[in-house]
Design the sequence.
């Protein structure tokens, strides 16, 4: 696989999976169709996202492995009840892969941005939520998802870290306290922001189920998430809340930024570039 | 107008979408809309023509299109009514405008709403079509700009589907400004009006 963006890698992997595995179906709602070769098990339902999830549920009911894809708001928010009932309540599996993330579509405005997607899905039981920070990590998460019947959400973004990180769960890259936990594509700015600070750094891509046990020896945590601030704060509290601790959660504070411009401008406006993260850390320290 | 559109560069993905609406928007703003009317751009994709018409009619500053898509601009790839009051609704996610238009029409406002043929894929539109027809909302006009972009098409035609729900539905050439004006200005007393503006090529 050669694509240098997560989204491109996802299309390559999906095309290959359709050829290789007869259980795999791709279900689209216009978005992504032009990026994939025609295939008898690729169904484009048109701009009908609720139908897209319902069709995926029907395929899963018949033992298939549906891969469902669109912009995050149209994949998670618009067909929310279908996700809640047709998949989760029916206890059916699917692999949902989004693009656009929090502000990739910065010029497109609020309608194409979903900083709430992970928080929403995290309210439902039984979802594995993957937030890769590199195309190689997307490939690992997608390959693992196809091999199961789980409900999996994989959030892709045009942002990417300089290099992939191997290992599952909470991967500690540098010991120290507080432990700065970088989620997905926030790792590169976190490493830049902390290069001369006496803090620990850890990396996390599978945010649900949350690795509570990995926080056994951790007292102070700075969570850096590329979506709504505090999305995983309650999970950290569940892990360390029974003893004295400190927790600071960085992420998007205001999803209604009401600005257009570039993703870089949005990242800076939300304080998620290296400078913003460093400022928050220095305040804390 | 051409010069205004040239300055709204950057969203080439939606060029086709934008230019398909140009004549409808011009006729609405130049010949049809009255002071107390409400116009909702439901199909927020490719709003360049919308911004160009607003600028040409003096509803936004003529210099404003130069900043299209910039961080500090009020003009993005989909409109936001909070930063751009000239836009009655924020749009960009499809299938929201027609239901909102039913609400404004119910509240007594003469309402025009522009949707796309691809946008009609979204089921929320048909909930609105069904209710507006059955409530006989005479002050509601839906303009469907049909540039044949719906993935699975509309067998039997779009107008027939509105007519089935008792809308007064007509089909006109979406580039023929006089035909558009006639269809949008007619006396439709029976119920809601649907003008399908066909744009081909």
Sequence:
């Amino acid at each position: 696989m050669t694509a240098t963006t997560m989204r491109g890698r996802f299309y390559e992997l999906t095309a290959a999976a359709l050829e290789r595995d007869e259980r795999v179906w791709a279900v689209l709602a216009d978005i992504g169709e032009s990026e994939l070769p025609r295939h008898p098990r690729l169904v484009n339902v048109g701009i009908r996202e609720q139908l897209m999830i319902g069709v995926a549920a029907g395929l899963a009911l018949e033992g298939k492995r549906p891969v469902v894809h669109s912009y995050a708001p149209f994949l998670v928010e618009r067909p929310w009840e279908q996700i809640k009932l047709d998949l989760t309540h029916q206890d059916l599996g699917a692999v949902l892969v989004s693009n656009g993330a929090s502000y990739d579509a910065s010029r497109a405005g609020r309608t194409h941005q979903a900083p709430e997607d992970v928080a929403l899905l995290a309210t439902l039981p039984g979802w594995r939520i993957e937030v890769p920070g590199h195309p190689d990590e997307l490939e690992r998460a997608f390959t693992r998802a196809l091999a199961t019947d789980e409900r999996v959400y994989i959030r892709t973004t045009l942002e990417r870290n300089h290099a992939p990180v191997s290992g599952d769960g909470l991967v500690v890259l540098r010991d120290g306290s507080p432990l700065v936990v970088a989620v997905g594509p926030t790792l590169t700015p976190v490493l830049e922001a902390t290069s001369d600070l006496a803090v620990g750094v850890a990396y996390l891509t599978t945010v649900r189920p949350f690795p509570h046990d990995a926080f056994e020896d951790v007292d102070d945590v700075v969570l850096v998430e590329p979506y709504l601030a505090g999305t995983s704060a309650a999970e950290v509290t569940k892990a360390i809340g029974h003893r004295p601790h400190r927790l600071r959660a960085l992420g998007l504070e205001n999803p209604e930024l009401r600005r257009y411009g570039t993703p870089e401008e949005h990242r800076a406006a939300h304080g998620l570039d290296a400078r913003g993260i460093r400022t928050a850390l220095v305040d804390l320290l | 107008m051409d010069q205004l559109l040239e300055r709204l560069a950057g969203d080439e993905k939606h060029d086709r979408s934008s230019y398909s609406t140009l004549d409808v928007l011009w006729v609405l703003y130049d010949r049809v809309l009255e002071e107390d009317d409400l116009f909702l751009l439901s199909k927020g994709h490719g709003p360049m023509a919308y911004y160009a018409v607003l600028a040409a009619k003096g509803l936004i500053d003529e210099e404003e299109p130069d900043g299209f898509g910039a961080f500090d601009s009020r003009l993005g790839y989909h409109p936001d009514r909070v930063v751009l009051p000239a836009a009655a609704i924020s749009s960009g996610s499809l299938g929201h405008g027609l239901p909102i238009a039913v609400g404004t029409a119910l509240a007594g406002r003469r309402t025009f709403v522009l949707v796309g043929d691809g946008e009609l894929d979204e089921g929320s539109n048909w909930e609105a079509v069904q209710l507006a027809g059955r409530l006989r909302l005479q002050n509601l006009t839906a303009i469907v700009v049909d540039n044949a972009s719906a993935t699975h098409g509309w067998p039997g035609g779009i107008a027939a589907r509105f007519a089935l729900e008792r809308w007064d539905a007509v089909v006109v050439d979406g580039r023929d400004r006089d035909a558009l004006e006639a269809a949008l200005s007619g006396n439709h007393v029976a119920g809601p009006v649907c003008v399908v503006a066909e744009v081909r090529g």
